[in-house]
Amino acid sequence: QVQLVESGGGLVQAGGSLRLSCAASGHIIVYWSMGWFRQAPGKERDFVASISWNGGITYYVDSVKERFTISRDNAKNTVYLQMNRLKPEDTAVYYCAADNRPLQPRPTMSSADMDYWGEGTLVTVSS
């Protein structure tokens, strides 16, 4: 059974930084694309960033470009989201997700393509 466990969320002031981690267990994710999504209160879950299986291709939603960086350490079966210059509008529950189609040339940006999800970690940015 694949499990994804997010950590690193918390309360931070605007302009600050956080680093989210997503640790996978139950299966090696080295050949899978991975993604981060977020859901703000009263809103739908939206795409944030994704990374190809080898880390060579990354995608970001426009609102986080130049501020967030997705990365992965396949030796640790872990994916990260470094978030800098945080804004109050970044406040949301952040979810890690895995696309279990192996060796995809490009990572997906669609939640419908994701097969496994974590429980989420709350990020709150105060103004």
Can you walk me through this structure?
The protein is mainly β. Helices cover 0% and strands 49% of the residues. The chain has strands at 3-7, 10-13, 18-25, 33-39, 45-51, 58-60, 68-73, 78-83, 92-99, 116-117, 121-126. Strands 2, 4, 5, 6, 9, 10 and 11 form a seven-stranded mixed β-sheet that branches. A four-stranded antiparallel β-sheet has the order 1-3-8-7, with no helix packed on it. Strand 4 (33-39) and strand 5 (45-51) form a beta hairpin. The radius of gyration is 13 Å and the shape is globular. The model has no long low-confidence stretch (mean pLDDT 97).
In short:
The chain is mainly beta. It has strands at residues 3-7, 10-13, 18-25, 33-39, 45-51, 58-60, 68-73, 78-83, 92-99, 116-117, 121-126. Strand 7 and strand 8 form a beta hairpin.
Estimated radius of gyration: 13 Å
Q: How confident overall, as mean pLDDT?
A: 97
Largest sheet: 7 strands, mixed
The chain-level structural class is: mainly beta
Order of helices and strands: EEEEEEEEEEE
Weakly predicted, low-confidence segments: none
What are the defining features of this structure?
127 residues, mainly beta, seven-stranded mixed sheet, 0% helix
Topology, pairings included?
Blueprint: E1 3-7, E2 10-13, E3 18-25, E4 33-39, E5 45-51, E6 58-60, E7 68-73, E8 78-83, E9 92-99, E10 116-117, E11 121-126
Parallel strand pairs: 2-11
Antiparallel strand pairs: 1-3, 3-8, 4-5, 4-9, 5-6, 7-8, 9-10, 9-11
